[in-house]
Design a protein that fits this description.
The complex is a heterodimer of chains A (169) and B (140).
Chain A lengths: L2 E5 L2 H10 L10 H6 L59 E9 L8 E15 L5 E12 L5 E12 L9
Antiparallel strand pairs in A: 1-3, 2-5, 3-4, 4-5
Chain B lengths: L12 E7 L4 H11 L9 H7 L9 H16 L4 E8 L9 E13 L2 E11 L5 E11 L2
Antiparallel strand pairs in B: 1-3, 2-5, 3-4, 4-5
The chains are: A mainly beta (169), B alpha+beta (140).
Chain lengths: 169, 140
């Protein structure tokens, strides 16, 4: 996702760590964090995914004054006939198939990132249950306030012809 | 505290239960923190009636995040140089997941000692939901 300014803030890191069930003090206690070799509150390994919060055009967040495809009075808020199987996992379409991060340095509270997308590969595969699978890769480079590369993220999204549920539930 | 090169060998494993009876509320918590409000993860009505899935299900990134917690608990904070996964099966509310790391190689790179690690997260029935790899710098 392309994001101009993604400030790494301590409350956001704390909420994110809680949501993944991580009680590590390094994600919320500044005094503790300062006493470690990291020297500051750091971000968990998958935190940059939450740059979505700072993407003004992110499709998987309800936007003011716009129809939202989730349920409201009816099972979907979209009145025009269009939406199929729901938005996307990693890349604004279908489900999230893969995610990779290369860490060039540790991300810390106080950093301000800029994210730029580079186009990745696309390919197709025959799926077992969901019909044809269409894969699409997006490479995102997260650079800090000095223009230094912090994290390179590669996401792979997959679209299916029909809902593909792998679990039996 | 980070893992020390002198204390690690190929074949070592480490595992943690990263969620026990995953709640819909935790999935909502992840949606709120990450900003991914896709109704497939929190809106049962939309997900069953419109999208055609049996239930809401966890963000793949929630499973990856929880699995990452196992990794950072094992290798230490700020040590990962790479972490990548494939989402191999959907995770539904009620899931109990165990994440496991297996050291596959220890090598030198630009003066650092790096451990390569296979990552696998399975549910209580043994179905793998995350399959991946990680690399981490080891302390001397």
């Amino acid at each position: 996702m392309a994001v101009d300014k993604f400030p790494i803030e301590s409350a956001h890191v704390m909420m994110f760590a809680r949501s993944i069930g991580d009680a590590n003090e390094i994600y919320y206690d500044e005094d503790y964090a300062k006493s470690t070799d990291q020297g500051a509150i750091i971000a968990p390994p998958t935190f940059v995914q939450s740059s979505a919060q700072f993407d003004p055009d992110y499709a998987l967040r309800p936007r003011i004054g716009k129809e939202w495809f989730g349920s409201a009075k009816g099972p979907t808020g979209i009145t025009k006939k269009k939406e199929g199987g729901g938005g996307g996992g990693g890349n604004g379409g279908g489900l999230h198939a893969e995610q990779h991060y290369v860490y060039h340095r540790q991300l810390k509270v106080g950093d301000v990132l800029k994210a730029e997308n580079k186009p990745g590969k696309s390919w197709e595969k025959e799926g077992r249950r969901g019909g044809k699978l269409m894969f699409n890769e997006t490479v995102t480079e997260y650079r800090d306030q000095n223009g230094e590369l912090v994290i390179t993220a590669t996401g792979v999204g997959v679209r299916t012809e029909r809902p593909a549920t792998s679990g039996d539930k | 505290m980070a893992l020390k090169a002198s204390e690690v060998k190929v074949g070592d494993t480490y595992q943690e239960v990263v969620c026990d009876n995953l709640s819909r509320t935790q999935i909502v918590q992840y949606a709120g923190a990450s900003g991914d409000y896709n109704p497939l993860h929190s809106d049962e009505v939309f997900t069953t009636e419109i999208a055609g899935y049996p239930s809401v299900f966890a963000h793949g990134m929630l499973s990856m995040g929880m699995t990452g917690r196992m990794l950072t608990n094992y290798v230490g904070d700020g040590r990962l140089t790479y972490y990548g996964v494939r989402f191999t099966s959907q995770v539904f509310p009620g899931a109990t997941l165990t994440a496991r790391a297996t050291v596959t190689e220890i090598r030198e790179e630009n003066g650092d000692t790096i451990a390569d690690i296979d990552v696998s997260t399975t549910d209580s029935e043994g179905v793998e939901v995350i399959k991946g790899k990680a690399s981490a710098k080891l302390d001397p």
